[in-house]
Design goal:
Elements: E1 7-9, E2 18-25, H1 29-40, E3 45-48, H2 56-60, E4 64-66, H3 72-76, H4 83-94, H5 99-107, H6 109-118, E5 127-128, E6 141-142, H7 152-155, E7 162-164, H8 173-186, E8 190-192, E9 195-203, E10 208-216, E11 219-231, H9 240-246, E12 254-255, H10 264-271, E13 276-277, E14 282-285, E15 298-300, H11 314-322, E16 330-334, E17 349-354, H12 357-363, H13 370-382, E18 405-409, E19 418-421, E20 424-425, E21 432-434, E22 440-446, H14 467-483
Helix pairs in contact: 1-8, 1-14, 4-5
The structure holds flavin-adenine dinucleotide.
Length: 486
């Protein structure tokens, strides 16, 4: 994929085509936020973008930002939240490995929400109460994660934190990117398009990153950075080799990204000595909801056993299905809650309707008696609004006793699961890229999907956890890099 080395020694560079304080590689959400904040810190900024326009995967995304702590939208919708509550949930569901970054993110979340709005990104003061993966309407708030799931609901007060950009249609974040890039233009951020970053330029004297080599119109050009370089090139879902060597994916998983989500920033940073993290992390999705009523069904594996609370976030359910024998799973419903899954891209197939559970068990080739037993146990407890095995919330519990029954095949090899990568360059709270000894690499910053996410697996991800932290740490990167000594 690369026709030149990924690092170059500054001592070998004889000519720089231009010189700036800060070079930002990639003009998605992380890069735009980095560029804007670096510029506002007084830096001369150049954005290097491989495509002919900015936007990246951010512009085609569903526009959900995971924000909380008491934002204006949460307050207007009477959703109680504060920074400590948000922190408790995030630590409980993601672990404490990134506790300092999570603390910082939660503490500064209301300020970050206000900042996004101040750039012209609108968020409607309205609450979508139903279960949804994304919205085609303009409501500003919905529940997008595992906040209501056991045990998290007992550790932190559940609060909806999915903030959707106010724009109807399937790519609401296009508007956010237009607004951010317009701000960048208005405030004097420079950009070079059709320019692929091919190498980082290293000052061997003090081991710092001092520039970027780009390929533009077939020509290699060197750009000098006095203060540093921010890598914001997105994830690596479209890089077949990186996916094959890092992820244990099913061959049927389909990548979700743009052609340039090819891991360039991770490869550039790694070549310059950067550590990576969570490279085996992914979020896969083929949601059973909407409609929410399907959550009242049960999901079983090919042994006829339940293995996940059906009210989990869709990425968590998918992660558990991936661990089941042959990655097979069936959604079982009764006639009272029967509906077809609405997410068309998931292509969950109705297997059939059945007059009895025994008949279904036999047709699905489940071990004799397995599903009958699972359903009998489930119904017994559901009648008392309990789920001792998986603690599904009582909102979603009802005995599945109104035949006929139906089964949907939601296996990995039958349905269509999409996935995104979660791993990348390791950064600290200043968004500085860390080397393999844990030290910050001088002059090198990272933000967005080319860095390791705060959630490292689909089990702990929530929609909005890419755009939220990506925009936040993009800002951090821009400010810190621009304030660095030359
Ligand atoms: C359909 C879809 C829906 C999604 N919905 C959501 C959602 O609702 N909420 C959420 O949080 N996440 C969502 N995501 C994920 C989210 O969009 C991405 O994780 C996020 O946008 C990544 O932002 P980024 O700035 O890191 O990268 P990007 O937005 O991908 O930007 C990276 C930029 O770098 C450029 N680039 C790449 N390589 C080079 C190079 N060598 N030189 C120069 N430029 C380069 C690219 O062209 C691109 O413009 C969704 C993703 C998809 C595909």
């Amino acid at each position: 994929m690369n026709d030149t080395p990924l690092t170059l020694s500054a001592s070998d560079i004889t000519h720089y085509s231009s010189t700036h304080d800060v070079l930002v590689v990639g003009y998605g959400i992380a890069g735009a936020c980095a560029a804007l904040e670096a510029r506002r810190t007084g830096a001369d900024v150049m954005v290097i973008e491989r495509a002919s326009a900015g936007g990246g995967a951010s512009a085609v995304s569903s526009g959900l930002f995971y924000l909380g702590g008491g934002t204006g939208v949460q307050k207007a919708c009477n959703v109680e939240d504060d920074a400590d509550n948000m922190y408790r949930f995030m630590i409980a569901s993601m672990g404490s490995e990134n506790a300092d970054m999570i603390r910082m993110y939660c503490d500064q979340n209301v300020e970050h929400f206000n900042w996004l709005e101040a750039q012209g990104i609108p968020f409607e003061r309205s609450y979508h109460q139903g279960k949804a993966v994304f919205l085609l309407s303009s409501e500003g708030l919905l529940s997008t994660g595992n906040e209501k799931l056991w045990p998290y609901r007992e550790i932190a007060r559940p609060a909806a934190r999915g903030h959707q950009v106010q724009e109807e249609g399937d790519s609401p974040c296009r508007l956010a990117m237009e607004r951010l890039i317009q701000r960048c233009l208005d405030e004097g951020v420079n950009a070079t398009y059709d320019s692929r970053a091919t190498a980082l330029i290293i000052d061997d004297g003090n081991n710092s990153i001092v520039g970027v080599q780009i390929r533009k119109n077939g020509e290699l050009l060197n750009l000098r950075a006095h203060k540093g370089v921010v890598l914001a090139t997105g994830g690596f879902v479209m890089n077949h080799d990186m996916v094959a060597s890092n992820l244990q994916t099913s061959p049927t998983l389909e990548p979700l990204g743009t052609p340039y989500s090819d891991g360039a920033g991770i490869r550039l940073g790694s070549a310059a000595g950067a550590a990576t993290d969570a490279m085996n992390g992914l979020i896969a999705t083929a949601s059973i909801y909407p409609p929410g009523q399907l959550i009242k069904g049960i999901i079983v594996n090919r042994n006829g056993k339940r293995f996940v609370a059906e009210d989990s976030y869709h990425g968590r359910t998918a992660a558990f299905i991936a661990e089941q024998p042959q990655q097979r799973a069936y959604l079982i419903v009764d006639s009272e809650i029967f509906a077809y899954p609405e997410i068309e891209s998931a292509r969950h197939q109705l297997i059939d309707g059945f007059e009895s559970i025994e008949e279904m068990e036999s047709q699905l080739k489940l071990p004799p008696g397995s599903l009958t037993q699972t359903l009998a146990d489930y119904n017994l407890h559901a009648a008392a609004s309990r789920d001792p095995d998986f603690h599904k919330h009582s909102d979603w519990l009802k005995p599945l006793d109104k035949g006929p029954w139906a089964a949907f095949d939601i296996s990995y090899n039958r349905s269509s699961y999409l996935f995104m990568t979660l791993g990348g360059l390791k950064i600290n709270c200043n968004a500085q890229v860390l080397d393999r000894e844990g030290n910050a690499i001088k002059g090198l910053y990272g933000a967005g999907a080319c860095t390791a996410h705060i959630p490292k697996s689909g089990k702990s991800y929530a929609s909005g956890m890419s755009l939220g932290p990506g925009s936040f740490f993009g800002r951090v990167a821009g400010r810190h890099c621009a304030s660095a000594a030359q």
